[in-house]
Amino acid sequence: MAVAAVTQFQADVTIHLHRNDLPDGLSFGPMVAVDTETMGLNPHRDRLCLVQLSAGDGIAHLVQILPQALGGHGTDCPNLKRMLADPGVVKLFHFARFDVAVLTKTLGVRVAPVRCTKIASKLVRTFTDRHGLKELCRDLIGVELAKHQQTSDWGAPELLPEQLAYAASDVLHLHALWARLEALLRREGRLALAESCFAFLPDRAALDLLGYEEPDLFAH
Known about the structure:
The longest helix has 19 residues, at 191-209. The chain has a single domain, classed as Ribonuclease H-like superfamily/Ribonuclease H (Nucleotidyltransferase, domain 5). The N and C termini lie far apart (49 Å). Strand 6, helix 2 (96-107) and strand 7 (114-116) form a beta-alpha-beta unit. Strands 1-2-5-4-3-6-7 form a seven-stranded mixed beta sheet. Helix 3 (117-124) runs parallel beside helix 6 (174-187) and helix 4 (133-141) crosses helix 6 (174-187). It is of the alpha/beta class. It contains seven helices and seven strands; from the N terminus they run βββββαβαβααααα. 37% of the residues lie in helices and 20% in strands.
């Protein structure tokens, strides 16, 4: 477990790339932004390649999950697993349903408690159907995200600087987004409803892993 690279791609942003696990003793405080990069969108088929984390302080920690065939430790990442399962740390996602499912399937941990900026947006920004991270960052905090690397090969043993910058950008702004969305949820009287949705997300992910994406268990 070692820091493979430290990159500064903006004056106020630093990226730490770790191979196989987080370093010992690293703390993200009471809320950590989390995202994943995978080989595809099927948790049963497509392997987890990268887990991105940030405390919202302009620093992104990227954990590269390398299989043993590529010289890695596979899913032997105890520090990462411990943090994701820690009930005292809120995990903040955008589209938590997918990320929680792939982390649960790959690492065998229940990821909770969670918050999701996409669900929050759908609850309070009912005047639009644009709830992607790119749109939220632009509309709510005035940040333009580049998405050119979204469909690149995340399974490569050596990731490009452009990939690292893209991956980091998906977590660096989530704390600021959540602050805006939480204020909107309070304003519209929907925070309690949102909290109930967030509490259900780990179970929704478990249902997806059992094959209940379609037909939806709740469809009538």
